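Anyone? Bumping this.
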Amino acid sequence: MKVVTFGELMLRLAPEGYLRFIQSNKFEATFGGAEANVAVSLANYNQDVSFVSKLPNNEIGQMAINSLRQYGVNTSHIVRGGNRVGIYYCEKGASQRPSKVIYDRAYSSIALAKKEDFDWDDIFSGADWFHFTGITPALSKEVAEITLEACKAAKEKGIVVSCDLNFRKKLWSNKEANETMSKLCKYVDICIANEEDAKDVFGIEAKDTDINTGKLNKEGYVSVAEQLSQRFNFKYVAITLRESISANDNNWSAMLYNSKEGKAYFSKKYAIHIVDRVGGGDSFGAGLIYALRNSYKNQDAIEFAVAASCLKHSIEGDYNLVSLEEVKALANGDASGRVKR
Amino acid sequence: MKVVTFGELMLRLAPEGYLRFIQSNKFEATFGGAEANVAVSLANYNQDVSFVSKLPNNEIGQMAINSLRQYGVNTSHIVRGGNRVGIYYCEKGASQRPSKVIYDRAYSSIALAKKEDFDWDDIFSGADWFHFTGITPALSKEVAEITLEACKAAKEKGIVVSCDLNFRKKLWSNKEANETMSKLCKYVDICIANEEDAKDVFGIEAKDTDINTGKLNKEGYVSVAEQLSQRFNFKYVAITLRESISANDNNWSAMLYNSKEGKAYFSKKYAIHIVDRVGGGDSFGAGLIYALRNSYKNQDAIEFAVAASCLKHSIEGDYNLVSLEEVKALANGDASGRVKR
Amino acid sequence: MKVVTFGELMLRLAPEGYLRFIQSNKFEATFGGAEANVAVSLANYNQDVSFVSKLPNNEIGQMAINSLRQYGVNTSHIVRGGNRVGIYYCEKGASQRPSKVIYDRAYSSIALAKKEDFDWDDIFSGADWFHFTGITPALSKEVAEITLEACKAAKEKGIVVSCDLNFRKKLWSNKEANETMSKLCKYVDICIANEEDAKDVFGIEAKDTDINTGKLNKEGYVSVAEQLSQRFNFKYVAITLRESISANDNNWSAMLYNSKEGKAYFSKKYAIHIVDRVGGGDSFGAGLIYALRNSYKNQDAIEFAVAASCLKHSIEGDYNLVSLEEVKALANGDASGRVKR
Amino acid sequence: MKVVTFGELMLRLAPEGYLRFIQSNKFEATFGGAEANVAVSLANYNQDVSFVSKLPNNEIGQMAINSLRQYGVNTSHIVRGGNRVGIYYCEKGASQRPSKVIYDRAYSSIALAKKEDFDWDDIFSGADWFHFTGITPALSKEVAEITLEACKAAKEKGIVVSCDLNFRKKLWSNKEANETMSKLCKYVDICIANEEDAKDVFGIEAKDTDINTGKLNKEGYVSVAEQLSQRFNFKYVAITLRESISANDNNWSAMLYNSKEGKAYFSKKYAIHIVDRVGGGDSFGAGLIYALRNSYKNQDAIEFAVAASCLKHSIEGDYNLVSLEEVKALANGDASGRVKR
Amino acid sequence: MKVVTFGELMLRLAPEGYLRFIQSNKFEATFGGAEANVAVSLANYNQDVSFVSKLPNNEIGQMAINSLRQYGVNTSHIVRGGNRVGIYYCEKGASQRPSKVIYDRAYSSIALAKKEDFDWDDIFSGADWFHFTGITPALSKEVAEITLEACKAAKEKGIVVSCDLNFRKKLWSNKEANETMSKLCKYVDICIANEEDAKDVFGIEAKDTDINTGKLNKEGYVSVAEQLSQRFNFKYVAITLRESISANDNNWSAMLYNSKEGKAYFSKKYAIHIVDRVGGGDSFGAGLIYALRNSYKNQDAIEFAVAASCLKHSIEGDYNLVSLEEVKALANGDASGRVKR
Amino acid sequence: MKVVTFGELMLRLAPEGYLRFIQSNKFEATFGGAEANVAVSLANYNQDVSFVSKLPNNEIGQMAINSLRQYGVNTSHIVRGGNRVGIYYCEKGASQRPSKVIYDRAYSSIALAKKEDFDWDDIFSGADWFHFTGITPALSKEVAEITLEACKAAKEKGIVVSCDLNFRKKLWSNKEANETMSKLCKYVDICIANEEDAKDVFGIEAKDTDINTGKLNKEGYVSVAEQLSQRFNFKYVAITLRESISANDNNWSAMLYNSKEGKAYFSKKYAIHIVDRVGGGDSFGAGLIYALRNSYKNQDAIEFAVAASCLKHSIEGDYNLVSLEEVKALANGDASGRVKR
C-alpha cells in the first residue's frame, strides 16, 4: 500500500551560504514544495509513496522529477504539460536577520492544471493514505476543486486523509482560505498546523501566545486542537511549536491531540542550531504520517515526528534526508551529536 | 547626449561549464536581454546610456538593476512594479551538441507593463538615439503600442532610431511579427538583422543560403538589404553573417548596406572559438551604434561592430565586457591573442 | 519488456576542469561503469532498463543507486552488501597531455559477490535483452561464473545477449581474457568492440592500422569483424573507430557488420571537440542496442549509435545524458551546433 | 543634498568559509574600506552619497568602482591614477580562534595621492554632510593635509562633519594619531568611536573596563564622551560597545552622548551570532549619520544605528547590504529571525 | 633531534559544508590520519618531525605526501608501494545530527605493509621521540608486529615513546586490542586516551560518567589514570574530556596525571563552537608531546595541549594548522576571539 | 648536487575560467615566478633544487613557501622579512581576446632585499647549477647587484650558470636592461630567450619575422643565436618559437644553438590547444637545464625541453606539474592524447 501526496514542486533558488540575494551571482538550484517534501521523507523511511502534480515537458520539469526519483519517490502520476515550473527564491537569514522567501509561482503548470489532468481512481489504486496541504487548494480555484475531488475519491475508497493547514498569505486571503479549507476539512482525518495556521485559516486562537517571543502556552494549544476537532471531526490534531530565538537558534516541539481520547501529548523540546529550517513543518507531517500509519502509540508518534523534524533543521534544502534509524536514534534520546564512525 | 534602449532584462540561469540542466544543482545567475546588452556595451564604450524597462520591486528586480549600474548604465527610468523578473535558462552546447535556451518570461513586469508606466518625453530628454529590438513589441500587444509611442516620440524629437529585428518564434508568429514590425519600422533609421530575421519577419530572403552550412551568398545579402531599405526607407541595413561549424567554432562577419549609396560594406571574417555566443548579435548592434553615432566611415563602422561582437563570443554572460581600446585593437588587426602584460 | 545490464558501478573522483590530481583539493564525485552507463543511456531513450550489481549498504552505496534512479533506471535488483564501492580517479587531459585513470576497484562489493547473490530467473523476468561487457567477468573468477550463469539463463529464455569486449589490462591478462571471453561469447548475439579489443582479447587484428595516428583501414576492420563472427557466430559485430588527434580533438565513426549479409555498414565520421570522452564506447553500445531493439535498418542503426556516442563526448561524466530527439536530430544531419531556443 | 565620504577602498581577499590562509587556493575578492562602507550603507538607505578616493586606471581599480556603482554610490569624484589598489587579506575566525587581518595597503593610489588630485569646492557642490575616519589621515602626511583641506572646505560651506576615530596601529603611532586627529577634530561635529579609540588616539579612558571580558562600565563611557566633547566641542559623541564572547558570539550595543544636553542614550543590547563582523563599526556610523541627518530623536537615532550594525554582523563582506525597512523592523523590536515570506 | 610518528595517512572525502553524502556531487579531498595529524601539528610548532608510512606509487599517494610536505613534515621515510591509499568519507553533523565517518581503509598500502619495508635503525637516526596510536597496530597483524619492532628499537635507543590508545571498533575487537596493546604499552612512556579508550581497550573505567551527557567525574578519571599507570608503568597519562552538547557545541578539557608524583593536573575548560572536530584528539597529543619535549611544567603542559586542541576544533580538515604563538596566546588566556589586525 | 634558482615568487590572482576581472568576485590564488617555476619543474624531475628569495614573515609569505615545499623544492634559503608578497593579476584570454596580466609587484620583500640578506657561499654549498632570469635584476638596483654577486660566486665555484633573458618592459627600459644584463651575461654559460628578448634587451634581431603572424624564419633565429654567443661567449643559446594563432591555439617549437659546434638544432613543432600558457617559457628553461645537466645530446635536449613546455600549456597555474616519464613519452612521440588507464 502506498501514500499519495498532491501539490506543487518548485525550483528553489538560493544564494550560497549566508549571502544575500544582491550579493549573489550563483544560486543553489534544488527543488521543494510542501507535499513533495513529505513524499521524500516517507520514501526515506522506506514507504511506498507517489507524488502527484503537473510539470512542464521541458528539462526544468525533468530536473524536478529527477530530484524526486533519486530518493525513490514514484513520479509516474506526475502529468507533463504547461509552461513553467514555479520558483521560489530563498535567502538564508542569520542572527537577527530573518530568512527571506520570494515566490514566483503564479502561472505554473500545476497552478493552471485542469480537472481532466488527474484520474484519481487510477492514482489512488493501491493507496491507503492521501496527504495534501493548504497550499495546494490555494494555487487556483480549479486546483481547489481538483483537491476536493481527490478528497472525495479518497473518502470513498477508505483512504486516510491528512492535511497540513499551511496558510500562505501571498496565495489567498484568510477569508478565501476559510471557505475552501472548511469544505476540504470535512474529508480530513488528521489535521496538522503550526502555531499560527488555525488562527489564520479558521480564526481559532491559542490565547496568550506571542509567536515572536516563543513563550508557549500549552493549555492554549490544547484548546485550539479541541476547537479544530470539534468543528471538523478530526481524529488527530497535531500542532508544531516553534520558539524563534534568532534566525540561527530555535526551540522546537509539538503536540498531538487525540480527539477520541480528548487528550494531548506533548513531545520533548529540542534546542536547535539551524542549518536550514525550510521544510521543517513538512518533515514533521511526514514523521507523523509514518508513525500513525505504522501504528505508533500517541506519545511515540509525536516524539518520532518531532525528532524527524528536529533533524530536518540540520539539513540543507527542503527535503528531509534522514533515515528511519537516524530518527529513531534521536527519538530514543541520543541528541549529543557525537561522531558516528 | 545619451542613448536610450528599451526592452526586457531577464535573469539568466545557466549550469556551470558544459553541464547539462539535468546534471546541475547550481546555476550561474546573471542578467541579460537584447536591449540591456546593448546598453551595457555602450556604457563600456563610455557612452551615456539609459535602459528603460519595468522590474518588480523586490530583491530580484534589484539584482537586475544592480547588474546594469555596476557597468555605469543609467537605470533611473526603470519603473518598479509588477511581480516577476523574466527568466531564461541557458545550457551551453559543445561540439555537435547545441546550446539550449528555455524561456520563462511570460507575465514578467515588463510584459504586463502599461502605457502609463512610461513618460517618453521625460525619458528622451537629452537623448539623441533610441534603440529597441523585435523582442520588445513581441512581449505583449500593450508593449508593442508602448514601443510605437516611443518611436513616434523619438521621431518628433529628431532622435535616431535603430532596431534589431531579432525574431523570436516562441513569442509571436511570423504574421504577428510582420504586422507589428511593419508599423514600427516606419520610424526606424537603422535596421539590424541576422541571416534569418528578414525572412522570418518580412518574408524577404537571401536566396541560395543554407544557414546550417554557413556558406555565404554575399549577393543574396545585399539583395535582402536593398529590399528592406526600399520597403521601410532605412538609411542603413546591417546583417550579421554567422557560419556555424560546431557549437564551439563559428565564423563571424557582417555587412553594412548604405542605402543612399546603394553600396554594401563587408567586414573581415573571424574564426571564433566560442566561450559564450549569447548576446553576440546585441554586441554587434551596440558596436554599430557606437560607430555610426561617432561618425565612423562605413567600412570602419562595420569593422568596429564585427570586432566588438567577435570579442563578445569570448566572454561569459550576455554582456559584452570589452573596452573601446580592446575593440579598436582587434578592428585594427591584432587578432593573435598574445598576452598583454 | 526490459533490458538488463550487469556490472560494476564505481564512484568517479575527478579534479575540477583541467586540474591535475596533485593540484586538487576537491573532486567531482559522480558514478559510472560500463554497464551502468549503458543502462542510463537506455533509460534516457525511454527504455525500461534494470541494472544489476552489488553495492554496500552504506551511504556511498546509496549515492551510487540514487545516481541511477534519478535517470529512471530500475535498481531493484541491485544487491546490498559487501564493504566498498569501487573507485576510479579520473584526470582530464588536454592537448598533448592524455587523460589519466587510476583504478581503486579491487575488493569492491561486486568484485567479491557470490553466485547466490543473484537469482537470474527473477532478474530476467520480463526481459528481452541482456548486456554486459568484458569488464564484468574480469572482476573475479566468481563474477566470471556469475556472468556465465546469466548468459546461459538469458539464452534459455530467448533473451538477446550483447557484449562489449572492453578489455582492461589492469584487471586481467590477455590470456585470461581470451579463455573466459571465449566461453561467454558463445552466448553472445551482438559483439561490440573498439579498434584494439579484438586483438587484445582474441588476438584478431585490424592490419595496417596504427591506433596512435588514427588513419583507418576500413578493409582491416571488416576482416576483423568477419573473423569474430566466424569464431563465435555473432549476428552483428560493431566496431568503433577513434582517431586521436589530441586529448581535445578526436574523429569518431563506427562500423556495423551484419554477418548474415556478410556486409559492413560504415557511419559518417564526426570531428569532435571533446568535453569528456569517458563512457564514449558505452554510449555507442547503448545507441546500438536501442536501434537494433527498435528494428532500425543497419545503416540507420550505426548512424544512430555513432550520433549518440558523438554527443556523449560533449557531456561531463560517464552517463550520456541525451534524449532520443537529440540523437535523432544529429543522426539526421544537424551537426551545426546552432542554439536551440 | 548629498553626503560625501573620503578614504581608501581596498581589495579584500578572504579564504572561503572558515579556511585558514595556508589552506586556501581561492580568495573571495570583494572590496571594502571604512568610508566606502559608510557610503554603501547610506546608498542602501536611499541617500544620495558620493565616495571620494583615488584608484588606479586599470581593471582592478575598475572592479573597485563597480563594486560601489552597483549599490548606487556616486563614483564620479574618484580620481583615476597611481599604480595599486590597496589590499587586505582577511581570515575568518571561529570559536576561540580570532579573525586575522593582514594589510598590504602601502603605496596604494590613495596613499600616494596629491592635494591637486581633489577639488573640494567641486566635490562638495550640493553636499550637506562630510564623513571620514581616522584611517584616511593615517595613510600619509599628504593625505592628512588633504583631509584637513576637506574639513576646512566643509566648514566654510556649513556642511556637517562626522568622524570615526578608527585607530589603526599598523598605520601610525598613538602620538602621530593624537597630533593629526587633534587638528582635524576641531572641524568635526559628530565623533564616533569604539571602546578603545578614545584611549588609543587621545589617551582618554573608560575606566574599569577590560575590553577582553566585555563587562561594560556605562558610567565610564559617559565620562569618555564628556571628555571628548569638552576637548573638541563635538555636538555628539557615539561609542560602540562590543563584548567579545568568542569569534562567533558578540554582544553589541552603543551609546549616544548629546553634549548640549549633557545626556547619554544607551541602546538595547543584541546577542549576535556572527557571520562577518568586519565593517560593523562603519555600519554603525552610517546608521547614525542617516538617523541624525533625518532628524531622528536621540534614543531613536542610537537604536537605529545599533540595529543597522547588528544586522551587518549577519552579512558577508564589508558592505552592510540591508534596507531601511529591515533596519527599522529590527530597531522596532522584531529580532526573532522568523522567515519573511 | 626529531620526532618520528608512524601510521596511516588516508584520503578524506567530505561533502561541502553541512551537505549530507546523498546530497553531494563534490567532495573536499584532504588527507588525515592520527599519527600524520600529530606530525603536522609538530611541524607547525617548528619541530623536526618525520612521518613513516607506506603509500602507493601513484598520483594519489603523491597527493598524500605533498599534503605533508607543504607543512614541512619530513616524508623521506615513507615507503612507496602497494595499491591503494586508504579512504575515509566524512559527513559533518550539525545540531542533533551527528557527524558520520565511513571507512574504506582495508587493503591500503600500509595495511598490507611488510616488516622489511621499514628499517627502524635508519628511521630513528637522530630521533628522540616516537609516537603512534592504537590505530596503527589495528591495521593488520603484520603492522602490529612492525609497531612492536619500532617500540623495541626506540626503547633500545633511549627514545621516548608516546601512544594514544585511539580505539577503533571497526578495526578490531576489544579483546584483540587488549592483547596487542598490552604488549606494546610495555614500551610506552606517555599514554594518551579519551574518556572511553581505557575502558574499550583495557576494561578500565571512569566510574559514574556518562559520555553522552558530558557530566564529568574528575575523581573517576584520576582513578583510571592511576590504574593505567600501575598496569603499564607509564610516566604520564593524559585523558581528554569531551562533553558533547550537540554536534555544534562541545566542552573540552583534559587531565594530565604524573605517575611519579601521583598527582593529576586538570586544564581549564573551553566551550567550543565547532568548525571540525575530527583530529581534535590528535592535536591534543601533539600539543602534549610539544610541551613535554620542551620541558613545560605539568600544569603548563596540559594547558598548552588543551589550548592547541581547542583551536583545532575551529579548523577545517584533520590537520591542526595553528602556530606556536597562537596556541600560547590562547593558553595564556586570550579566548575572546577579537580580530587580530 | 643541487640546482639553485633565484628570483621573485608572486601571488597570482586569477578569475575562474574565462571570466574577465570585472565579472569576478573570486580569484584562484596560486603562486608563480619565473625562477620558482623552474625550481618546481626540476623538483618534479627528481632534481635536488633550492629556490632563493625573500618573503614576508606572515601567512601570505608562508603560503608562497608551502606552494614550493609541497612539490619538494628546498626553501631553507628563503629569507623571511619585508612587508609584501608581490602580486600579479592574470585574466585568461580566449579566441581573439588576449590574456591580460596586471602586475602589482613593486615594494615586495625581494624587490627591497639587501645584499646582506644572502650568503652565497652558504647557498651554493653543494650546488652545480645556478639559474636566474632577466626579471630578477630588473626588480631593483640592489637586487641587480645581488644577482651579480651570485653570478661571481657561482663562477668561482665552477657552477654552471643559465639565464633566461625574460625582458619585462614594465620593470625597466631596454637601455637599463641592456646595461645590466650585459654585465651579468659575462658569467652566463647558457642563454635562453624567446623570439623577442634578444631584440628587446640587446637589440639583436631575428630578421623578417613578425611575432604577430608567427611565420618563422629559421635562418634569422640561428643568426640571433650566433650574435648572442659571440657577444657573451655563451656555450648554448636556446630560443623558443611561439606562433600565436589565437589565445587558444599556438604552435610551439624551439632551437638550441651549440656555439662550439656552430650548429643549431630545431625541435619538432607542436600545435597546442592552450589551457594556460603562463610559465611556458620557464618550463622550457627547466626542461633544458634538466636535459643538459643530465648529458642529453643536443637534439634530444631540445626535444625534451620543448615537450616539457608543450605539456605546460595544458596545465593550470605557473608550475609545470609533469613528471619525467610524461615528458619523455611526449618527446618520444606519443602526442595523441589517448587516455592512460
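Late reply, but here is one note on the structure posted above: Residues 112 and 140 of chain A are 7 Å apart (CA to CA).
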